[in-house]
């Protein structure tokens, strides 16, 4: 297994350009999103099945994550000296929420879910779940100290970091039924839904927002397999140009929304993180960053160049063309950027997290305000 080059070592506090200090010693983190940061909500919420080799790299068993190991959010909470976030809907095991809670669910969209949606837990539902969670926590805390080791403190809801990584599925799903122009025309109303959720959280006490934009959708094997059969639709990296262009336009407007929200809520701290730039740089410079396969899936079926087949997913066993097939992983997932055709490997997530923590991909940036060491344990 390869070791990818990382930063040497945790934040104490970072003063942003607006003179506010961004303190990374948070009492809790509350996360909202899709499969990029789902630590078990979809699996618990709808009884979805994840088979080995999912989870093989770190957890040694499927752990609710659509990945061979840890996600970006896992690495970020680890860097903050916080435990991995438990999924809100996970009722078995050890659902301790003292340091936060994860409402993200794979397949979720910003827009309200429909009858055909992969996940019923759209962004507004996740926000409503948080509101109920907060109300229930305060009720239980009022009954005495016996619950305090399992639940966040009342003050944590204002002092916590609220993280967001959602929007990918709104764009990717739309390409199956809409034209590029229709998709672009729908971005403002999608972001209105997102803004509504941010405002509800603000009313509940949220003051520290950490918002990821969406990545280069056109570089996912799933999208290349379906939309990239015509070479003229691909860019120089072999990615679907239209998908990436839509992602850029979405991100441009999302960035504008974060600036507007910050101006409207001066007592809040809003940080926008350019995940698109980090992931596209990784794919463009994969070899330099210690990877050997920038596009092809590690756990897939079909062989090069994509090793992806929409009829069967990682770990599944099915009969295809009269033959029983089991989808297995590649020999070394650390050589691959992509895990299963849709999601990134732990190694790629680790790289992305390390780049986020440099501060140079954030607005406001904090790369020039780093008189401290990062003590990253990964």
Automatic annotation (TrEMBL):
Alphabetized UniProt keyword annotations: Glycoprotein, Hydrolase, Signal
InterPro entries noted in UniProt: GDSL (IPR001087), SGNH_hydro_sf (IPR036514), SGNH_plant_lipase-like (IPR035669)
Molecular function GO terms recorded: hydrolase activity, acting on ester bonds
Domain of life per record: Eukaryota
Residues making up the signal peptide according to the UniProt record: 1-21
Any one Pfam family match given in the protein's UniProt record, by short name: Lipase_GDSL
Family stated for the protein in its record: Belongs to the 'GDSL' lipolytic enzyme family.
UniProt-recorded name of the protein: Uncharacterized protein
Provenance organism: Kalanchoe fedtschenkoi
Organism ancestry: Eukaryota, Viridiplantae, Streptophyta, Embryophyta, Tracheophyta
């Amino acid at each position: 297994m390869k070791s990818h080059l990382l930063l040497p070592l945790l934040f104490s506090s970072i003063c942003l350009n607006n003179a506010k200090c961004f303190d990374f010693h948070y009492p809790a983190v509350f996360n909202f999103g899709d499969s990029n940061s789902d630590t078990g909500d979809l699996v618990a919420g709808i009884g979805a099945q994840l088979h080995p080799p999912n989870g093989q790299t770190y957890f040694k068993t499927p752990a609710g994550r659509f990945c061979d190991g840890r996600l970006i959010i896992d690495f970020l909470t680890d860097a903050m000296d916080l435990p991995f976030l438990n999924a809100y809907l996970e009722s078995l095991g050890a659902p301790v929420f003292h340091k936060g809670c994860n409402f993200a669910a794979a397949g979720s969209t910003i827009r309200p879910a429909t009858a055909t949606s992969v996940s019923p837990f759209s962004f507004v539902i996740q926000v409503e779940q948080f509101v109920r969670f907060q109300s229930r926590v305060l009720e239980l805390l009022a009954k005495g100290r016996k619950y305090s080791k399992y639940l966040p403190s009342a003050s944590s809801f204002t002092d916590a970091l609220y993280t967001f990584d959602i929007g990918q599925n709104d764009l990717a799903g739309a390409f199956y039924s809409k034209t590029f122009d229709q998709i672009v025309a729908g971005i403002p109303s999608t972001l209105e839904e997102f803004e509504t959720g941010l405002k509800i959280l603000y009313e509940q006490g949220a003051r520290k927002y950490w918002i990821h934009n969406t990545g280069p959708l056109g570089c996912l094997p799933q999208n290349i397999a379906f939309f990239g059969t015509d070479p003229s639709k691909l860019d120089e990296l072999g990615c679907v140009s239209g998908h990436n262009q839509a992602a850029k336009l979405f991100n441009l407007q999302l960035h504008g929304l974060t600036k507007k929200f910050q101006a409207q809520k001066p007592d809040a701290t809003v940080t926008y993180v350019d995940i698109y730039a980090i992931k596209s740089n990784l794919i463009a410079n994969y070899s330099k960053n210690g990877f050997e396969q920038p596009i092809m899936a590690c756990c897939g079926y079909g062989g090069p160049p994509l090793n992806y087949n929409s009829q069967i997913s990682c770990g599944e066993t099915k009969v295809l063309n009269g033959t029983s097939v089991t989808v297995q992983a590649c020999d070394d997932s650390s050589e691959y950027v992509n895990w299963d055709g849709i999601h990134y490997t732990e190694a790629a997530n680790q790289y992305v997290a390390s780049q986020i923590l440099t501060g140079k991909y954030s607005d406001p940036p904090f790369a020039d305000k780093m008189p401290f060491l990062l003590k990253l344990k990964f």
